Amino acid sequence: MPLPYSELVMEHFKNPRNVGRIEDPDAKSVEGSPACGDMVAVYLKVDEEAQTITDIKFESYGCASNIATGSIITELAKGKTLEEAKAITWKEASEALGGLPPIKTHCSVLAVDGLRAAIQNYEERHGLVTEREPTTVEVVRKRLKRVMNPVVGLDLVRTNLVTDIHIAEGHVRVAIDLPAGHQFANNIREEVVEKIEPLWDVEDVVVEFTE
Length: 211
Fold this sequence. Notes:
Blueprint lengths: L6 H8 L12 E7 L4 E10 L4 E10 L2 H14 L4 H5 L3 H7 L8 H21 L11 H8 L3 E2 L4 E2 L6 E7 L2 E6 L8 H12 L7 E6 L2
Parallel strand pairs: 7-8
Antiparallel strand pairs: 1-2, 2-3, 4-5, 6-7
Helix pairs in contact: 1-2, 2-4, 2-5
């Protein structure tokens, strides 16, 4: 039985706005994993003085709800300040699309999470985070839960690939239980660095593959 998507949802699914990636973005984020069924990446260009989003694009791998929400979220966020864009909710996106099936809430929430994560990425990279707690092993581990093991579609922590996290004077070392020559090693390294390096007190991140 087909899901009761509105005409507006189908329009944004078939003709999504702002699709693609921004080369050299001011911030970006990736939420979810293709292996789990849904993923969204969000890219931002920000006017540093006005703190407004001048350009935003997204890439999506997923269902109609995921793609349509990515499309409407980027439309809602473009031109807004970072604070205004952070306040955009899934409910607001759903209403702008004429409603989404409750069973598809998780898929579409990814787009909202992707937008907020991209804004957080920008704020961290530009020293705009006001709450500056020291980076701990638990903080790093929490961020690694957002880095996927592409083979199984679960994060590095849940698949027990993180064997050690060491932090000393701004230097973070993460040991991953995979061969350095693994087909996804470079992608994992890039994502780990991308998630941890923006933290205010982190100077550099080293990812070591232990096999």
